[in-house]
Amino acid sequence: MMHEKLGDAHKALAAYINAHLLEPKFVPSKILIGSLLCKMGGKMLPVARTLLSDALRIEPTNYMAWYYLGRIHKDEGRIADAVDCFQAASMLKESDPVESFSSILETFSNIRVSFFDSLPT
């Protein structure tokens, strides 16, 4: 996430993919990659759509996956599909219990540790 915040999308993507390779069914890494590819647009949209759809098969109540899938549909001109995704994201977000900040930090810390542990020494 640090690379993404600093504007280095390619390094961020590499870090997210490495984390994803360590735990392929980990939904947050699928969403991080999908959201970054969504922001890149163009030829990346089909890959982003696949990752986000896969995330939703594993965790159908993930509002972020619905949101980014909606953005992809919107960018590709499928407005009705985009509206459905945005509505799902909105309803799920409203019903989502507030998650503590510490649990979010712990999740991303685990991703970071996994990534750095995978680097050659």
UniProtKB/TrEMBL annotation:
<dbReference type="InterPro" id="IPR019734">
    <property type="entry name" value="TPR_rpt"/>
</dbReference>
<protein>
    <submittedName>
        <fullName>Protein NPG1</fullName>
    </submittedName>
</protein>
<keyword id="KW-0802">TPR repeat</keyword>
<dbReference type="InterPro" id="IPR011990">
    <property type="entry name" value="TPR-like_helical_dom_sf"/>
</dbReference>
<dbReference type="Pfam" id="PF13431">
    <property type="entry name" value="TPR_17"/>
</dbReference>
<dbReference type="InterPro" id="IPR043376">
    <property type="entry name" value="NPG1-like"/>
</dbReference>
<feature type="repeat" description="TPR">
    <location>
        <begin position="63"/>
        <end position="96"/>
    </location>
</feature>
